[in-house]
User: Fold this.
Amino acid sequence: MENISYEKRENVAILKISRPKFLNALNTQTLLELNQAIEDVKNDKDVYVLVITGEGSKAFVAGADIKEMSNMSVFESREFSILGNSVFRKIEELEIPTIAAINGFALGGGCELSLCCDIRIASENAKFGQPEVTLGITPGFGGTQRLARVVGLSKAKELIFTGKMIDANEALNIGLVNKVVPTENILDEALLLASQIAKNAPLAVKMCKVAINKGIDVDINTGLSYEAEIFSHCFSTEDQKDAMAAFLEKRKIDKFKNR
Ligand code: CAA
Assistant:
């Protein structure tokens, strides 16, 4: 792959968008490579957490590629939006937790990429925004749908209608990011969080993620009955038996078996 790098550290995968000359802007090729990389993550049973970040210290992703979009026809722009939306939805639907390590500009498609991750950590120099209306377009990779779900209708509308940029602290204040960390520590902080998650029973963590995501879209009774299903499903795993036995024997479990 030319524009995506993929690395594994124990049970954590790191996916890096790597087009630094263009501030990691997403063109069609990068979206197709990202799609392939996500398929690889999905098929790797040893990956328990995924971290997504951008190459360099200036940008996470500065949006969809404006040069490529500038000459698109109505048909081509529709295909481009459908491609971006399908790749981002695939990220959102991964069963393993995903963390966006936002190391600079997260604009347009970059903010949207972070929004389909479960947790967002921002470097102090990160900047967020949906500047599409300043380019005569709307967000096209999920911004009109996911931003409001994360920060609420009113803030999402303010950000999308003005196209303004906000800094990392304001992003923290409105709940767009979970944490702001020194710029030079961004990947380490994301990996620290990833390793805390990866230490836990992977099947239970996955089931929690699926239940939370499912629960947001259904009524409380449907959500609670789904929780009873996944809760009881855990009792069919070796990890539940090992962990509860370890607790009762007052010892620490070494490593979960993911079974
Ligand atoms: N697409 C293509 N190229 C981009 C880009 C983008 N989104 N963002 C930056 N670049 C390129 C610049 O054209 C420039 O290339 P050249 O050196 O060849 O001129 C290079 O990256 C460096 O950028 P700047 O010189 O502009 O850097 P800066 O520090 O002066 O400004 C910035 C940084 C404020 C992020 C500015 O680059 C910028 O405003 N970028 C565009 C941000 C944007 O509007 N994103 C939304 C795109 S629309 C979208 O994403 C739609 C969607 O939802 C699908």
